[in-house]
């Protein structure tokens, strides 16, 4: 095996974004992320302060979404969401680009929108993942987004919300890794449901995945490692 349990666990952002999850299920999900020592728990914004409280003192990051899931919020609202999330204890933010503006070719607007969230998040010492929602985009649009995120110093580029009609594809991950500077990491979301798929995208240079089947993936990892 060319991996350790910790390396695989730290790749996973345990996703708790399904709108039908109850308070009890969100609490349990936070504790699961803690138990399995994930990279982060990515939770609905209203529950973030409780999530951060549960994770405090651990190596598991509290994270949430901005402009989710469609990206059509005004830039001012995205910035306000980011500010509130940081106040509530977020260490990583997953923001959705304005998909409509990407498709319209208004790159100046797209750049300003992403910059607003990155600037205030980095000023607070925290990190940003920029979600493209690739299922709606052409390759040249994905490439331009990679270039913009590189110029702005995004921490990750991310394939999808997990709530569009398509998720992470091998082709998209190869493209995003190829057109992003080395300092910008790549996150796969949507369709990472087992350890083999996680290992497949890891081999492409992906450093994070969004997953809801975290326990199944990491239990299988432990089994293979003889833990």
Walk me through this protein's architecture.
- This protein has helices spanning 5-9, 23-36, 48-55, 75-87, 99-104, 107-123, 139-152, 170-179, 195-202, 214-224, and strands at 12-16, 40-43, 61-66, 92-96, 127-131, 156-158, 185-189, 208-211.
- By secondary structure, it is an alpha/beta fold.
- Helix 2 runs parallel beside helix 3 (48-55), helix 4 packs parallel to helix 6 and helix 7 packs across helix 8.
- 46% of the residues are buried.
CATH architecture: Alpha-Beta Barrel
| Count of individual domains | 1
Would you state the CATH class?
Answer: Alpha Beta
Kindly report how far apart the N and C termini lie: 13 Å
| Sequence of secondary-structure elements | HEHEHEHEHHEHEHEHEH
Biggest sheet record: 8 strands, parallel, barrel
Q: Counting H and I runs of at least 4 residues, what is the number of helices?
A: 10
Strand order, largest beta sheet = 1-2-3-4-5-6-7-8
- Overall number of strands: 8
Q: What would CATH call the homologous superfamily?
A: Aldolase class I
Classify the secondary structure makeup into a structural class: alpha/beta
Please tell me the overall pLDDT: 98
Radius of gyration: 16 Å
Low-confidence stretches: none
Strand content: 15-25%
Q: Portion of residues in helices? A: 40-55%
Might you state the CATH topology name? TIM Barrel
């Amino acid at each position: 095996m060319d991996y350790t349990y910790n390396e695989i666990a730290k790749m996973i952002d345990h996703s708790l974004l399904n709108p039908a999850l109850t308070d009890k299920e969100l609490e349990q999900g936070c504790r699961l992320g803690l138990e399995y020592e994930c990279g982060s728990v990515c939770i609905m914004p209203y529950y973030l302060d409780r999530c951060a409280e549960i994770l405090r003192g651990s190596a598991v990051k509290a994270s949430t979404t901005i402009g989710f899931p469609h990206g059509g919020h005004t830039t001012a609202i995205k910035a306000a969401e980011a500010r509130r999330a940081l106040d509530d204890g977020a260490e990583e933010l997953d923001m959705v680009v304005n998909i409509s503006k990407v498709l319209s070719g208004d790159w100046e607007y797209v750049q300003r929108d992403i910059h607003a969230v990155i600037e205030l998040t980095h000023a607070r010492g925290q990190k940003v993942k920029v979600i493209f929602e690739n299922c709606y985009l052409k390759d040249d649009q994905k490439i331009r987004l990679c270039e913009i995120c590189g110029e702005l110093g995004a921490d990750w580029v991310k394939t999808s919300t997990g709530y569009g009609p398509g998720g992470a594809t091998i082709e998209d991950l190869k493209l995003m890794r190829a057109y992003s500077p080395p300092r910008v990491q790549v996150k796969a979301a949507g369709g990472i449901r087992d350890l083999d798929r996680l290992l497949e995208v890891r081999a492409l240079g992906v450093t994070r995945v969004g997953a809801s089947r975290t326990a199944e993936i990491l239990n299988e990892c432990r089994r293979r490692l003889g833990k």
